[in-house]
Known about the structure:
The complex is a heterotrimer. By secondary structure, chain A is an all-alpha fold. Helix content of chain A is about 70%, strand content about 0%. Chain A is built from 16 helices and two strands. A two-stranded antiparallel sheet of chain A has the order 1-2. Chain B folds into two domains: about 1-105, no CATH class; about 165-405, MetI-like (MetI-like fold). Chain B is built from 18 helices and no strands. In chain B, helix 6 packs across helix 17 (about 375-390) and helix 11 (about 270-295) runs antiparallel to helix 14 (about 325-340). By secondary structure, chain C is α/β, with parallel strands linked by helices. In chain C, the strands form three sheets. In chain C, strands 1, 2, 3, 6, 10 and 11 form a six-stranded mixed β-sheet that branches. A three-stranded antiparallel β-sheet of chain C has the order 8-7-9. A two-stranded antiparallel ribbon of chain C has the order 4-5. Chains in contact: A-B, A-C, B-C. The interface between A and B is large, with 148 and 137 residues.
Amino acid sequence: MTTTTSPATATAPARPATPSTPAARVRKRLNSPAATIASILIAVLWTVPTFGLFISSLRPEDDIKTTGWWTVFGNPRFTLENYQEVLFGRSASSGQLASYFVNSLVITIPSVLFPLAFAALAAYALAWINFRGRDWVYIGVFALQIVPLQMALVPLLSFFSEGVSLGGVTLLPAWNLSDEEKFIQVWFAHTCFALPFAVFLLHNFVSQLPKDLMEAARVDGASHPKIFRSIVLPLIVPALAAFAIFQFLWVWNDLLVALIFAGGGNEVAPLTVRLAELAGTRGSEWQRLTSGAFVSIVVPLIVFLSLQRYFVRGLLAGGVKG
Amino acid sequence: MTLVRAAAATAAARTVPGAGPPRRPFRPALRTVPLEALMDFADEAPKLLMLLYGLLAFAVVVGGLLLLLDVIPSWFARRREAALLAASTATTPGAPARSTTPADDAGGVPPPRRRRSVVNRREGGLALFFLLPTLLLLTVGLVIPAIRTVVLSFMDGRSENWVGLRNYTWMFAQDEIFRVLTNTLIWVIVVPLVATSVGLVYAVLVDRARFEAAAKALIFMPMAISFVGASIIWRFVYAYRSGEYEQIGLLNQIWVLFGGEPQQWLQNPPLNTFLLIVIMIWIQAGFAMVVLSAAIKAIPADVVEAARLDGVNPWQMFWRITLPSIRPALIVVVVAISIATLKVFDIVRTTTNGNYETGVIANEMYNQAFRFGQTGQGSALAVFLFVLVIPIVIYQIRNLRRQREV
Amino acid sequence: MAVQSRRPRQALAIAGVLALALGATACSGESESGLDPDSPECAPYSSYQGHDGESVSIYASIRDKEADLLRESWSQFEDCTGIEIDYEGSGEFEAQLQVRVDGGNPPDIAFIPQPGLLARFAEAGKLKPMPADLKTIADANYPADWLRYATVGGQAYGTPLGANVKSFVWYSPKAFAEKGYQVPTTWGELIALSDKIAAAGQKPWCVGLESGEATGWPATDWIEDLVLRTQTPEFYDQWTTHGVPFNDPRVVNAVDEAGRILKNPKYVNGGYGDVKSLTTTAFQEGGLPILQGQCWLHRQANFYANYLPEGTKVGPDGDIYAFYLPTLDPSKGKPVLGGGEFTVAFTDTPAVQAVRRYLASGEYANARAKLGNWISPNNKLDVNNVTQEVDKLSMQVLLDKSAVFRFDGSDLMPAAVGAGTFWKGMVDWVNGKDTKSTLDFIEGSWPK
């Protein structure tokens, strides 16, 4: 029944400036508690597991393994040891979490920007430029989403390490990258893998833009690149922000691509590789993963919170009028 | 301390390309400090330099592309004018192309074969530039691997001999694998449905609420945790201890509070598959909420206002205004979650690794191809994934057609 | 000495930052560059010289603290020869190695713990055979029992590196002394002891089978140990190579024998509850109840010492120690189940060959053993250099002339069985499935 009551709270104060009807105000007052309770319920349900992990990450190893995290409220025993281990490491070669942190950033930023730009261009062309077969191109790109990453690793790796040759003729030489240069491979791989989803997401937003707007611009003599730059881009900022967030999360949390294309050394490997290593050779140190998870969650959360404001602005409403 | 180091490293990186006189003294200092102590600087500086190169490359590629796109249309426009001029001088519209070829085709571009294609080609050429980077990268990164996978699926485990359809008959003959296929179906039906519903309800509920940003961040948080991290969290929730000991898993604790015997949740099919599905829903609801919330905010205020003036109640408002307005976003969410679910891998791997009848295709594929050295069977499973996505693709095609008709 | 000075690096880094902040321009320190090849401490490395400046990449599954010990073990070799060893350890080693090899980007050297996987790469022509000089060293330093696991089609590909011994039962010497229990030397005594403890109202055995994606592997070790104890080593070889079917009645018999302990509610699971708790108890925690007096016997390899809490006294008169898992039929010899990893190469530059020769040498085995936590079948390894009590015991078992060593069967079988259905089958079996249909299922999954 909660859904019945919910839209009132959602839509009633749509425009704080416009005076809402008395009836709406009454309805709102009646429905608000139900809606509030429902939303709190979902929020609690969604937060409890994470909260449990957070509490666990602050408990001594023995306690984690013998008692439930909720017992901590009756018998508070906390330690920062888990965090200390994750941040500064026990083993000699691993004290450099900061270094892996930098790697993660260096990997993530271009891996978000490249697919964002390429997909925006492609999405525009697929939505608003008339050419034969464009629907099939779009469907093809869309369908590529299903290609499992795991199956693409070997061919892409051999593309980097052996180059491309056809019938004995080398079309593209091997890349032969070393150390820091390996970042390029990682960017390249992430960009490839992100494009189908990026094109799909952005195409949906771009193709929703009002046709009149586009046609008016065309009549005014604006070229496609001009329309793309001055009309489309500003209007799809929320979509760009949304994709940027998801791609950021994906890259930041990725382990598989990094393992293959970056390797495990601290010149290139990101945080996730390091955190996976924290489990120890035979997986014995998994309690360290609790604190590790929280160390790695901080940056994505900051990114989400800072990009979230782009969602607030109306997409179509603001656009048509503006 | 790390901050200081990073800042110093940034400074060091900046001095390399900039080489500004005031910062110059940093370099010799870096060289004379013991190498051991400077591992960090020595390590970080080239990375940040690399990042700089990456961003530079980004600026050059994207900027260059846009610049090129600005130049090309005018070039095309000139060509088009010339073509039109040529067409107007030709007497018969039926065969103008052939007759004008020698006179006008100085650029070496093949002549247009159909009347309409003059416009189409112009746009087509342009579109190609918009699409070029995407298509190139997709070919290398996904199209070739996809073709390779299909080819491998007809070969044996070592990819040496052709085996025809044997890998596919194997898939359906083994009870275990058949279980994997049905599990995947359960996943792909339940996850998009529930995750989208929860995300939608929550997005509607917290819309314009007082603590909206914070409330949304709570639901979003699982998304910020990796799949592996999320699975670890839920393994905690489902943890089992024998009845005579204190429970450490939340679910069993609650279960015991209500008088139940502690359960090995992850080992009892078919319930365990649904408990794994809960993890995926937990993660994906945040995605649904974010996209749908953005769509709800995009509903024009005047539409809402008009409806309200008409006196619709909230229930009607939701079904008649909100839902139709966000339909495109809903489709995006459902489709995206469906595909993510088809490919789900980390969750199953981290919690049960496909034991206890919880396997899904992507997991089994990875095991077969990379752990068991059965590349053929793994590839066949991957191809089956391609097949499963066909209904979604057809739905997209229909969608696209309808959109074009409007 | 790069590694020894690594620990204070943190402090030095702070110092370095401070120095920079204060604008100090010069301070001097030791450089990381190699030692003089002609210096006395480099004398043992003279035969590996001549590759200064080259680098060799090594890929393995060993990570974290143990990886640090590895790096430390060859640091002097690096300093003296100028060969730089890039070591990388990954938890995804087995799958990632295949991806890297298929992708044309293999490491120079890999430490492969599964002879089955090694054979796969060898048959695909990816591995470089051992050069003659290395073969000579290998034959001199390692027992033939071990070398044959790295020999495919008559061609030798690798040398053993580390080893472990799995046929151990952990127990508490203190608690045994208190209760007057004797360490059993025959299978009959072992069962009698178990019954005695059970009669006293305690569960004698504790078992942990949970190990993430590899859940079930400790149970496969049980089965292998019992196949070795109820049948001949030759039968074991046939079984692991599919010379006899996986579900041979003699194997059924061995599995049932294991079931008499593993599936006996009176015997398990000390400290954790009933039989159901076997598959949810992490293998790392499996034997810990022994320390709390809630469990008496725990069958696990020598490396279990690494999972004991810090400060636990391991030794014949300590908190915990291990005894050899007795045989059913002493007339069939003294079987020892174990495992280890093999050094193989995907490239064969002179520098790679130098590293391989070094890793196969007695000097290396002793250098690594001195750092602790490690044993090797290398017969040049001096037992006095082995640090831990239980490792010394393992060396005794390995070097025992009457012992018949056999490699962990699940590592010998094709991965689809040894790292797949065998694990899975064991989990189902412990949870109640009957022996025959479990083994039928595993047999059916053997790749044709």
